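Structure (tokenized):
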């Protein structure tokens, strides 16, 4: 009887997932969370077998949330369920420790398969992403995504910059000193070889690495 937590800010998404899971795992116990903070509180109080988590919830730093979840319970299986580009974001979350990445456009059968695979302790990636990863191996390797050079923290700051947050706003949200954020910002520009925010945003849009509104 698996214990499952659904973390998503849209109640209709949580309800749909609940109905789908209960249909093929009738005896599952399912809890819900609407943001990262509430998800963390529930994880501290209960031993879940699986967390299905969106990465674009309000007031939620998805990278830090996942890192914190795994710091609390290293063995917890987390399946990312998101509208964000799988090709860009899946690798980052898998590197942090997620057991799978699933698009919200997936069919019911694929969602079911992903949950089953992750509950078995295996890693799930879609057939499409699998093919793209295979295509990067060998003499005809595709051009590298420049954003892959960034650390999780740097990538996170790119997201905040894209949302128009100032250095002081980012410092407050990320609990960092303004000078530290400034250092990160300079490092990001250097790694991406851009001179200003406009060039950065053009590059981010070209590689589809900005969280949708």
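Design, position by position:
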């Amino acid at each position: 009887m698996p214990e499952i937590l659904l973390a998503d800010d849209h109640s209709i998404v949580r309800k749909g997932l609940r109905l789908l899971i209960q249909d093929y795992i009738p005896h599952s116990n399912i809890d819900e969370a609407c943001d990262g903070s509430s998800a963390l509180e529930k994880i501290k109080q209960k031993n879940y077998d699986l967390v299905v988590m969106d990465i674009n919830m309000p007031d939620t730093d998805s990278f830090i949330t996942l890192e914190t979840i795994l710091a609390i319970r290293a063995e917890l299986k987390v399946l990312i369920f998101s509208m964000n580009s799988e090709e860009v974001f899946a690798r980052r979350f898998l590197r942090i420790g997620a057991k799978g990445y699933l698009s919200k456009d997936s069919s019911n059968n694929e969602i079911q398969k992903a949950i089953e695979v992750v509950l078995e302790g295996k890693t799930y990636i879609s057939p499409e992403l699998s093919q793209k990863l295979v295509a990067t191996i060998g003499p005809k390797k595709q051009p590298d995504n420049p954003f892959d050079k960034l650390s999780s923290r740097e990538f996170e700051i790119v997201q905040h910059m894209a949302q128009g947050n100032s250095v002081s706003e980012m410092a407050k949200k990320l609990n960092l000193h303004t000078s530290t954020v400034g250092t990160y910002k300079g490092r990001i520009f250097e790694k991406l070889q851009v001179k200003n925010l406009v060039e950065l945003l053009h590059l981010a849009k070209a590689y589809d690495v900005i969280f949708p509104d």
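Reviewer-requested clarification: The chain has two domains: 3-135, 146-206. The CA atoms of residues 136 and 143 lie 8 Å apart.
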